[in-house]
Amino acid sequence: MLRTLKWWAPTASMLLLSLLSYVDRNVLALLSPNILHDTALSAETYGWIISAFSAAYLIGNPIWGRLLDRFGVRGGLAAAAAFWTCASASHSLAGTAATFAMARAALGFGEGATFPGGLLTATQTLRIDQRARGIALAYSGGSLGAVVTPLLIGPIALRWGWRGAFVFTGLMGLAWLSLWSVVSRDRRLVVPTPRYDVVLPRLRDRRVWGFMAAYAFGGVPLGFVLYWAPLHLSRALHCDRSTLNHVLWIPPLGWEVGYFFWGWVIDRAARRGTLGPRLYRRLFALLGVLSVPLAATPLVHSLAGVLLILAFGMFVAGGFVIASLAETARRHDWERGAYLAGLGAGSWSGTMALVMPIFGKLFDRGAYGRAYCLAAALPVCGAILWRALAAPSHAAPADVAVGSA
User: H-helix or E-strand containing 41?
Assistant: First the structure.
């Protein structure tokens, strides 16, 4: 039992790291009604602040991916987590759009190491037959963090205010760094001798752009629901802070379930030998169709109904992330694959940086219907672009079973 726990400890630490990253980034969204009220910031300004995070996250993902591939996760993840922990705690000192944007950008750049580090740790420390489950475990902390943030941070904010909540996130970061100082001594985390025959994704390859389009556009509902659902529920359905604390864990639960469900679908097809071009074409088409119901959210006036649609939208978006990364993995070696994970997460973040101010302007106008239609249409565009740029028409190399992304 102890041997098993030790074997899985590095990957479990990645679950906690991705959980920490999503708690840190979601505190602003969860407490946005209070923060905007206290600071007199508009929803459009709030959208630009989110874009500052997304732009820095876009830059940080491929940079951290290459650094971790080259120098390893031992010191790399410690440096990244320490940097973003300071950035998260600094939100407690912010009071203007500029100071929030600077804190947010620093947080985004540091958190760019999260998923490249999670993928690299899982593939470096686990056997081939364990890597699908390992990647699922490492990545699922993100959706789990979105689930626990309202339950964990809500009571703290009620007791010590939104500034106290950001101080608490800094303490969480210190706790993870203490854990990593012990776990990272694992010999499997020694930087391997570089292999020069590994085929890395190249930006001139149109299939890479198809992958990034599916990942980025298909994942838009994840960021949209996380950042804008609190404002929608408080303004349109008049939910108070206590109600939000009790219900905002529900939509991300759909994301968590979606990660493992779609991962199970892909892994099951891989075991049966049916995971080929036809399945991926059908899967992306299905995901595109299933994204459409999110547009109907403003037409539903019951809290339970809205939460159900939001949860389903995140469930489907999780499928886009998994399918895009899994299909791309069929053409690239997972060794030194942190860069690949960085391209996917970075493309998503860049898309969020562009659309968040648009969502903010629509929310300022009370145009919730248009905002939700845009959030539902972008995944459809992602499926179409993937079909045009990346859809394989012939048999591909041996499929790599991926449990999450």
Answer: none
pTM of this prediction exceeds 0.85: no
Confirm whether 47 is domain-assigned.
Answer: yes
Instruction: Determine, yes or no, domain membership for 167.
Output: yes
Residues 147 and 19: their CA atoms lie apart, in Å, by 9
Does some domain include residue 3? no
CA 393 to chain CA centroid, nearest Å: 29
How many domains would you assign to the chain? Answer: 1
How far are the Cα atoms of 99, 190, 286, 341 from residue 218, in angstroms, in the given order?
31, 35, 12, 15
Q: How far apart are CA 19 and CA 26, in angstroms?
A: 10
End-to-end CA distance of the chain: 28
Q: What is the mean pLDDT of residues 17-42?
A: 88
The CATH number of whichever domain residue 135 belongs to comes to 1.20.1250.20
| Burial class of residue 314 (count of CB atoms within 10 Å of its CB; 0-12, 13-18, 19+) | buried
In degrees to the nearest 10, what's the CA dihedral of 222, 306, 256, 84? 40
